[in-house]
UniProtKB/TrEMBL annotation:
Residues 67-197 form the Disease resistance R13L4/SHOC-2-like LRR domain. Gene3D superfamilies: Ribonuclease Inhibitor. Residues 224-256 are annotated as: Disordered. It comes from Chauna torquata. PROSITE patterns: LRR. GO terms for cellular component: cytoplasm. The gene is Lrrc18. This is LRC18 protein. The keyword Repeat applies. InterPro entries: Leu-rich_rpt, Leu-rich_rpt_typical-subtyp, LRR_dom_sf, LRR_domain-containing, LRR_R13L4/SHOC2-like. Residues 228-242 have a biased composition (Low complexity). Keywords: Leucine-rich repeat, Repeat. Pfam families: LRR_14 (PF23598).
Length: 256
């Protein structure tokens, strides 16, 4: 007996693809083939390679071919919620790409092409819900990147070259097994920049403004004095003994 074949999936014809082209809000042409039950990349869409946006999300794709490089006008590429285990190196040729979503796939760090760092105009990159155990430092070359999703992976750290990208405003790295648990919150909301800060001396303030500032400062001081400082080692006298359910599984939940 031969190998059991996987689902064939829906066959996309050129006519179907042409009927799936939509005009996006900014006037671009978007080829929307999401939720079509596609298992293999439809070769016929290579004849529509002049589209500005391509949506292949929520399908069953395992591979994107090297021929993706024919979509040179592509600005927006959505591949999320497939079964991709790798990406082609030619994805780095899509120099106009500013949005790339490859969330919820089966990508590993080993199969993440280094050529991603060639996408110099990329603004949004979503790598969440994959199997990444590290992030290549080379992604620090994406100087235009504003949003980066790394949530729900196997990351233990994030390279400084990525965290300190000059235009990065949003970094989501929730639910990763970071080595330093104290720093985990830092990755969730690490990009906190003060837009404008004005400092003046008291002598430069008018009487009413000075009084307002002094009143606010007094309120803060009173608040600090009334709130007790939390104990470094919180005590939970009623939780000294685990309940019966926890006892049965204590080897699983006990911190080593």
């Amino acid at each position: 007996k031969g190998k059991a074949k996987g689902p064939k999936g829906k066959k996309i014809t050129l006519k179907t693809a042409k009927n799936s082209i939509r005009i996006s809000f900014d006037g671009g042409r978007r080829l929307d083939l999401s939720k079509m039950g596609i298992t293999t990349f439809p070769k016929c869409i290579l004849k529509l390679a002049d589209v500005d946006e391509l949506d292949l999300s929520r399908n069953m794709l395992k591979k994107i071919p090297n021929s993706i490089e024919k979509f040179q006008k592509l600005r927006w590429l959505d591949l999320h919620s497939n079964q991709l285990e790798e990406l082609p190196k030619t994805i780095g040729t899509l120099q106009n790409l500013f949005y790339l979503n490859i969330c919820n796939n089966k990508l590993t760090t080993k199969n993440l092409p280094e050529e991603l760092n060639l996408l110099k105009n990329l603004r949004i990159l979503n790598l969440g819900l994959n199997c990444l155990d590290s992030i290549p430092t080379s992604l620090g070359a994406l100087k235009e990147l504003k949003e980066l999703g790394l949530f729900d992976n196997c990351l233990t750290s994030i390279p400084n070259s990525v965290k300190k990208l000059p235009k990065l405003k949003k970094l989501n790295a929730e639910r990763n097994p970071f080595l330093d648990s104290i720093k985990k919150e830092e990755y969730v909301d690490s990009i906190k920049r003060i837009e404008t800060l004005y400092l003046v001396q008291e002598k430069d303030l008018c009487c009413s403004c000075l009084k307002t500032c002094q009143d606010e400062r007094d309120k803060l001081n009173k608040l600090k004095n009334t709130i007790p400082s939390p104990s470094k080692k919180p005590s939970f006298p009623l939780l000294l003994t685990p309940n019966s359910t926890a006892k049965d599984n204590q080897e699983q939940w006990r911190l080593k």
